[in-house]
Amino acid sequence: MSEGKGRASEPAADAETFLAATDTIAALRPELSLLEAGILAGLHLELAADSRSFARIFGVEHALVLRAVETLTGDALLTVTARDPRTQRTRYEASATGSAVLTALAA
């Protein structure tokens, strides 16, 4: 998956697509924070599949992203695939439950 390099300068339509996907996920799963929904949307749109990339692309503190990833993992929406012990960069993918939520975006 792409880590979203170069996406910051792409047209505003990409931002609109991301925001629409985030809003849709938030509506499907109202218990999620907008950051959590955004992480799922970023994964779905192949903007970021790890915590550091998401934090950098969207200008969010890495610690907040890590906390949201942990919540999504606890809610069984994400599966952590790797974690760098030094930087805490956490790579993740959608779990079966998370994939079902993301499939609703394609409909």
Automatic annotation (TrEMBL):
Superkingdom of this protein's organism: Bacteria
Protein name, per record: Formate dehydrogenase subunit B
Organism of origin: Methylorubrum rhodesianum
Lineage: Bacteria, Pseudomonadati, Pseudomonadota, Alphaproteobacteria, Hyphomicrobiales
